Amino acid sequence: MTEASARKPSRIQQRNRKIIMDAALEVFSRYGYRGATLDQIAEQAGLSKPNILYYFDGKEDIHVQLLNQLMESWLDPLEHMDPDGEPLTEILAYVRRKLEMTREFPRESRLFANEILQGAPRMGPHLESGLKPLFERKTTVIRDWMTQGKLAKVDPRHLVFSIWATTQHYADFDAQVQVLIPAGEDVVDGAETYLETLFTKLLTP
Amino acid sequence: MTEASARKPSRIQQRNRKIIMDAALEVFSRYGYRGATLDQIAEQAGLSKPNILYYFDGKEDIHVQLLNQLMESWLDPLEHMDPDGEPLTEILAYVRRKLEMTREFPRESRLFANEILQGAPRMGPHLESGLKPLFERKTTVIRDWMTQGKLAKVDPRHLVFSIWATTQHYADFDAQVQVLIPAGEDVVDGAETYLETLFTKLLTP
DNA sequence: GTCTATAGGTCGATAGAC
DNA sequence: GTCTATCGACCTATAGAC
Question: Residue ranges of the DNA-binding region (chains A, B) (predicted)?
């Protein structure tokens, strides 16, 4: 009685799991949880549907594992905001990193957006245990910077919300942005310049 | 050959169509197009499924009509930005109006967000014909204001994006915001103060 | 490949308004 | 009596799972 995921995963297992996760990311991020089908994921992965279910316990299992895995890399930029760095530099670097992620990982951004939009049915606990403590630590750091006069005083929580909103917008609302900005123009480049100005003016004491 | 929706709509028809649209908004905005079911909509509306289909041609028809109807009210605040008004006042009033809509019509916001996230499959034409011309008119107005030295110079298109992103965030990512901000606090009130500061500092010449 | 549940959609019969 | 509105039962395709 050998379970697929138990013991040491073989080369092939590792490779196939990776392939399936990537295919699932592609499909889930484009069609949402309910809109995605195992058939689509199987086709995208170049594997049969039963083969997919050999590696994962079901559709929901794939989705949950995707979210778990992505949570880490998603929080990483905020984690890296250094309390001992120069405040404005740190914030702007964070904005730039988030924007870079929007450019490089738009599928991940849309996957999260989809999940949150629907009320985070499969991610509620993760928000509480993963995001919330980090959010509180970092907003405290920012508040301290403001108290010390190193940054202009605003509500640090809304500051972070506005950084998330403005950066992720270019991935999540890409379909709209593409309609409104002429093709060929590098939208994210323009956003970087704009957002740098926005947050510099806001936070300069 | 009499279609249900042809000719003069009776009292009952008007009433039931309204009830169904509202139920559909509730369900579609919570579960997305694919995640919503006619049974859910029927139950929410307090009508039978065949009765729903007596008034609409099908699931997609309901969704399309919802989007069409909402498009107008959605663009209304931007439409009302007055080229002859005082520039900063007009922009801040627009921000406030958008935030007010987020508070009053979060379901509508999520319905749009869902649709755009999935690549606007049922709204592409509307973006081109409805949103795009308006967007170009209004960004031109803002650019003129900047040229005349009445506002600080930034890319007006990204300015509008950032207004959309920051205001709609509170409806679309509500599930996340609720986790991060203590219950009982009026989040949108705090957002209003913050966003007023943000855009005032950005745009004051 | 097969089984099963579900979800979109149809039909025909009935109830109610004018 | 006719037309509008309503609904239970049914059909079919699809999608998750084994």
Answer: 37-56
At a CB cut-off of 8 Å and minimum separation 6, what does A77 contact? Answer: A94, A97, A98, A101
Average pLDDT, chain B: 93
Number of domains in chain B: 2
Do residues B170 and B81 share a domain?
yes
Average pLDDT over residues B18-25: 96
> Do the Cβ atoms of B154 and A117 come within 8 Å?
no
Question: Are the C-beta atoms of A122 and A60 separated by less than 8 Å?
Answer: yes
Of B164, B162, B145, the C-alpha closest to B198 is B162
Domain that holds residue B21: 11-57
A196 and A96 in a common domain? yes
Q: Which residue of B has its CA nearest to A31?
A: B118
- The 10s digit of each residue's pLDDT in A109-148 is 999 999 999 999 988 888 999 999 999 999 999 999 999 9
Residue A101 near residue A77, CB atoms below 8 Å: yes
For residues B123 and B68, give the distance between their C-alpha atoms in angstroms, rounded to a whole number.
8
* Nucleotide D16 C1' to residue A55 CA (A): 15
Q: Is residue A201 within 8 Å of A159, Cβ to Cβ?
A: no
Residue A7, sorted as left (phi over 0), alpha (psi -120 to 50) or beta, turns out to be left
Q: Using an 8 Å CB-CB cutoff, list chain A residues near B117.
A: 32, 110, 113-114, 117, 172-173, 175
| Partners of residue B179 in chain A, C-beta under 8 Å | 120, 124, 127-128, 131-132
Strand D bases within 7 angstroms of protein beta carbons: 3-9, 14-18
The verdict on A27 and A101 lying in the same domain is no
Cα B142 to Cα B179: distance, rounded to the nearest angstrom: 36
Tell me: do A50 and A111 sit in the same domain: no
- The CATH number for B36's domain is 1.10.10.60
A140 plus A86 within the same structural domain: yes
